[in-house]
Amino acid sequence: MSTTIQRMLWVMAAVLFIAASSSAQQTAAPRAVVPFTTYAFGDIYIGETISQIFVIRNEGNADLLIKDFVGACGCEVLGVDRVIAPGKEGSARIEVSTVSQSSGELFKIATLYTNDPQRPTIRFSLAANILTSGNGGPVMGVELRAGKHIGPVFVGPDTRTGLVAAPGKSGRAEFTITVERGPLNVQRVESTSKAISARLETIEPGKQYKIIVESLPTEAVGSSQEQLRVVTDSPALPSFPLFVRDIVRRDT
Predict the structure, then answer these.
(1) In this predicted model, what pLDDT tens digit does every residue of 120-178 receive, in sequence order?
(2) pLDDT tens-digit series, residues 23-45
(3) pTM of full prediction above 0.90
(4) CA–CA dist 105, 82 (Å, integer)
(5) CA 129, CA 62: separation in Å to the nearest integer?
(6) Backbone dihedral angles phi then psi of residue 25, each to the nearest 5 degrees
(7) Distances in whole angstroms, Cα of residue 219 to Cα of each of 83, 137, 169, 172
(8) Residues 64/30, Cβ–Cβ less than 8 Å
(9) φ, ψ (nearest 5 deg) of residue 28
């Protein structure tokens, strides 16, 4: 083969390689996949808080970027994962307090803005039927529980708690989880914290569970914010976080 032909073949190969690389770069894009975009709670007493955690998967071949997450009037945006790598998943959390809502049908929306060229906006919504007395106030004879609805479960007395202990001692707190829109089973509670321990107790399978949290004794005075992850078998709520403030102080 002559030198001229060899050079021509090398040039053609280089051109094809550059074109293929350019094409691959042009087609690289995220793809947002959201299994659920709405959650309906049914009947809710006025004054209760409803919330949901929506899963966002990136089935593309580039990072999915969340540019903004905005709640409409009365819908509070609690948080969102801003960057979701290809093949990974993140979440978006929204919440509505019904204290100042009117009786009857409630429908609140939050909008997610992404860099997915095929799905630049994603709308999440919460729906409920607000129960009130005849004058629009609390229903007579109904005492509201401490806590909040997270999709199909009710968590009490809140999704946050504090552990306060003296140096060398241990603090203790509990969360209760009631399944209200099953089927759903709480499978486990996860924690990577070296300051607290958490364990799951099943009160009634598929109905009620308890998370017991204890701080591990230490002589170090101070505080830390810890997070637990509660895992379920429900596609509507695969997992949800609980937050623990661990405080060690001498005046306890």
Answers:
(1) 999 999 999 999 988 888 888 899 999 999 999 999 999 999 999 999 999 999 999 99
(2) 445 689 999 999 999 999 999 99
(3) no
(4) 32
(5) 40
(6) -65, -40
(7) 38, 50, 8, 17
(8) yes
(9) -65, 125
